[in-house]
Design a protein that fits this description.
This protein is an alpha/beta fold. The chain is 18% helix and 20% strand. Bound molecules: S-adenosylmethionine.
Length: 336
């Protein structure tokens, strides 16, 4: 049974790796970083050239952004015209250095070379391309997200990538978020993305259903490129003083519960537990991230947890709550 389950899980995971980003979503996010691409080498290392919105965006805007070079590699595929078939042991690399302004370059306008291997982003030859590039932009396979981010961090690369918000508390991801080495981008409307999904039938029946696409909630952009939104101060209107019952202390953490980001009190100095969606409003000049619940990783709460409770999820009056980040308000003195 265990094997059967893990097999199913793997199949589901792999299918989730085959969601393709729409050009409108790439444009909507990347316009906020336009001035940071000048003279840069961009690498899309989990891509499907020609059918990829990333390839389309960077080739069409190559001159406008002032790029130096665009490199894309295509996993287990040599086809230019199809989404990854993952049916080839070898893969190809495409390199574009401009020259077809405002249009998709023809195959003759780009350098297409076979790779020695299958184009796995972890392979030696792809790591060498990574080392020679400045900014990585892609939608990597969800199932390899931790490993993918760890590689970018180890190689000290700038990036703008798509992932699920649940990854915020992954072992290899959370320390980067906590230490302001990675943060959320502007994001998708209502934190929800529609991906082109050739192998998956969307059963969503609401107004957001679109044929040939899958709607996925909780999808975010992760980046370490600075942007305007992360320096916007969140306007706080609630007070803790006189309203203490709305902010109960956890039974097993030395912090108060703030169940909605918009309810963060402007006058509380100590640790506050907030939902992970807080990060969409996070401004590092206003707040400090001090940890997360131990249910996400041992030691993640940096001393806020009361281990004698034996329960790693946050508990309020005996009731467990969903995972929390712990934050502190930097500007409390001026707020009082
Ligand atoms: C979520 S899809 C996104 C594709 C494309 N970046 C886009 O957004 O349209 C993830 C892509 O990663 C590729 N992929 C899966 N495992 C990979 C690996 N180990 N190395 C590189 N690419 C991989 C898949 O073939 C797929 O094309």
């Amino acid at each position: 049974m265990a094997n059967e389950n893990s097999g199913l899980h793997k199949a589901k995971r792999n299918k989730n790796d085959e969601f393709y980003t729409q050009i409108v979503d790439v444009e909507r996010e990347l316009r906020h970083y336009r001035d940071q691409f000048k003279g840069k080498v961009v690498y899309c290392n989990c891509d499907d050239p020609y059918v990829s919105a990333f390839f389309e965006y960077f080739t069409k805007n190559f001159e406008f952004l002032g790029l130096k070079r665009l490199v894309t590699t295509c996993y287990k595929s040599q086809r230019l015209d199809l989404f990854s078939q993952n049916d080839s042991k070898e893969a190809i690399k495409l390199e574009y250095t401009g020259g077809a302004p405002n249009s998709m370059p023809k195959p003759n306008d780009i350098g297409i070379t076979p790779l020695n291997g299958d184009g796995d982003f972890r392979s030696q030859e792809c790591v060498e391309i990574l080392n020679g590039s400045d900014i990585v932009v892609t939608n990597p396979p969800f199932s390899l997200f931790s490993e993918y981010v760890a590689q970018l961090a180890n190689h000290n690369k700038k990036f703008i990538i798509i992932g699920h918000q649940n990854a915020i508390t992954y072992k290899d991801v959370f320390p980067l978020i906590k230490n302001n080495k990675m943060w959320l981008g502007y994001g998708f409307k209502r934190n929800m993305a529609h991906f082109v999904a050739p192998h998956y039938k969307d059963t969503a029946s609401d107004a957001d259903h679109r044929d040939g696409m899958i709607r996925v909630s909780g999808v975010v952009w992760y980046t370490n490129l600075d942007h305007h939104k992360r320096h916007e101060e969140m306007i706080l209107v609630k007070r803790y003083d006189g309203n203490e019952s709305a902010y109960p202390l956890y039974d097993n953490y030395d912090a108060i519960e703030v169940s909605k980001t918009q309810d963060i009190p402007l006058d509380y100095e100590g640790a506050m537990g907030v939902p992970i969606t807080f990060l969409t409003k996070y401004n590092p000049e206003q707040f400090k991230i001090i940890g997360a619940t131990e249910s996400e990783g041992s030691g993640f709460s940096f001393g806020l947890w009361k281990p004698e409770s034996g329960i790693s999820q946050a508990v309020i009056k005996g009731k467990r709550v969903y995972k929390r980040l712990f934050i502190r308000n930097h500007n409390i003195a001026s707020e009082k």
